[in-house]
Amino acid sequence: MTTLIRFFLSLFGLAIRKPAKIGESWTGYGPVNRWHDINAGWIGKLARNGIKVAHIEFWGWARYAKWDDFETLEKRYRELVRACRMYGVTLFVSYTNDNTGSGKYGDARVPLSRYLADGHIDWGIHLIKKVGKSFVWIQPVGETQTAAGRAIEEKCMRELAGFPMIYNGGSRPTTCPPNWAGFAFHPMNTGQSIPANAIVVTDTSPILIELQGDLMGSHASTDILSAYGKDMNNNGNAVIHYGFWHPEADDNSIKALKR
User: What's the number of domains the chain is made of?
Assistant: First the structure.
């Protein structure tokens, strides 16, 4: 398929497809830390199964972070956004993670403040802005807890004005602050009460162990995740499965979240 044909198909797709809406009860999924190691074909799988949102950690984090591979990040990000626009899937980008520097799960123990000071954060923001806001939501920081994280939130709000912004201060906020489009909530287990209008993201060790049997497993339990996703949707919440260690898009997760 030529570049010109792809371009016109993309325009046609944008004309007939609409992004997911914050506040509605859809499902989402992403191989969040390793998305940059696989091609964007998994976006088509989401679309064919009625899954409206794809989720990534922009820089990755822990063992699979790619802080110094700008070429791969740019190539993969452009491919991913192009695929999302073509298939009508909204890309939920968690731009940074405030656990960076913690040393957990193979993290290199370089604090987020270092990347803020040395230009990494500016480079990524420039790329995201250049590629554009259509079908893209930004969560400036996952689990904001440091001064650097709060500075990145402010920078993204300022420099990526016009992108829908998702708040995740402290991992489990209970309301959406002024000037933010929505907020994400990371439950500790499948029985935890969820605030109204929260986007539920399964980004904690205990709930991942419940849903896939192993924190670092590569496959979800279809039955357990399916039941949880339906419970959340019936409660009026959107739900995203956080494929923490998934080396590729997990068919079990996609099957469980099919709508």
Answer: 1
- Look at residue 17 and tell me if it is in a domain: no
Domain housing 134? 25-256
**pLDDT in single tens digits along all 259 residues of the chain:** 555 655 455 445 444 789 999 999 999 999 999 999 999 999 999 999 999 999 999 999 899 999 999 999 999 999 999 999 999 999 999 999 999 999 999 999 999 999 999 999 999 999 999 999 999 999 999 999 999 999 999 999 999 999 999 999 999 999 999 999 999 999 999 999 999 999 999 999 999 999 999 888 889 999 999 999 999 999 999 999 999 999 999 999 999 999 9
Exposure letters 2-19 (e unless 16+ CB within 10 A, then b): eeeeeeeeeeebeeebeb
Q: Domain containing 213 — which CATH number? A: 3.20.20.80
What type of residue is 214? D
Asked whether residue 7 is assigned to any structural domain, the reply reads no
In angstroms, rounded to a whole number, what is the distance separating the alpha carbons of residues 83 and 103? 33
Residue 13 lies inside a defined structural domain of this protein: no
